[in-house]
Amino acid sequence: MIKKAKGRLRLLVSMLALVVLLSSCGGGSSKPENVNGEKVTLQFWTIALQPTFTPYFNRVIADYEQKNPDVKIDWKDYPYDAVTNKLLTSIASGSSPDVVNLNTEFASQMGSKGAVVDMNEYLSPEEKAAYFEGIYNSTVINGKAYALPWYTGTEVLYMNTKLVKAAGLDPAHPPKTREELSEWGRQVNRKLGKAGYAQQLVSKLFAIDGIPILNKEKTAAAFNTPEAVTMINNLKKQMEDGVILKEDADFAQQVKYYAGEQVAFELAGPTFINFIKTAAPDVYKNTIAVPVPTGKADVRLSNSMDLVVPTKSAHVNEAVKFAVFLTNAESQTAFSKAANTLPSTKDSIKDPYFTQSDQSLEAQAKVVSAQSLDKATDYMVGVPNAKDVNSAVTRAFQNILLNGTDTKQTLTALEEEVNDILKQ
């Protein structure tokens, strides 16, 4: 699996290099193309939103087309695993879409290669100020904003109250720090033989403890420190003690372990509820949501989806205008209500939907996470070649925590690898 992942990564890097080469030969037109009264057609791509949210998009697109009669939106939806390859292929072949839904990691990767436009060149100060600053800045590199933040999520702590009570713990007084969460996990393991929680071995583990990935200039790795060694060795001890499952568990695996009551806790955004409610209704009924325990850094990590406009778009001005419309407060509030996500716009959370709770699990998670949006930031904020850097960090964590390599030696090798990535 690792060899396949490396192969896919090399292919993406090669294709992205081709995209950059073609982009350097000239971008698309930024002028309206409305010859003889013909409509401008914008190609709009999203990730895995059909058919569940087709009614919402049909409404919002119809609304936009009514307000902008010279524009037609051609909406296409692709699976997550397919969209990046399809995007790079289309740009390289000269048939670029105009507005594309990407995650923050890949949006930053595209931006650092000059493959998407700088939104700061098109947005007014008022339009930029509409978004939460930390979330908007997640794709800002060297002063250039390569995406508009769209729907997002911040982590909350889900706990299975049945298991917590059986372990002799009081869910009415949940852990407030990562250290306290570790102690709760140890007690769950001692009393019940289950783990505290599962997690994915990604770069956010640095951010939780306030360990910077890169230096302030974003030119070199900055994580090879005694603090990082201590943090990673602490994670290793927690895995040995059963606090954390000894595994690199992606989101689907985390859902599986929580649904099967193999773990007592889950740290995730509000969308986790949609999966657990379907997979394990009884576990859902026993679950509550509370504020996420903080690490040494008092930050709230966001997991955002963004909208980008490729530089090869033939209709950049119109594309940016449509992206702004999709991410304005009105549109984001409506989508959040339909999709159980969080908005990235400040005015959206003034809606009572984000402040009032009926004590359902959905409402608990929504209110708790919405309250943290003003502190939210992406853990890869401002990192050039973010996708490659995160992949390198993940492999290093796997080698240390799962394969037993030396922490300091592996961090030193990772430092060299990240520095090489930054030179690409």
TrEMBL record:
Keyword Signal: yes
Signal peptide: 1-26
Keyword field: Signal
Transmembrane feature ranges: none
A Pfam family hit: SBP_bac_1
Protein name from the UniProt record: Sugar ABC transporter substrate-binding protein
Record organism: Paenibacillus kribbensis
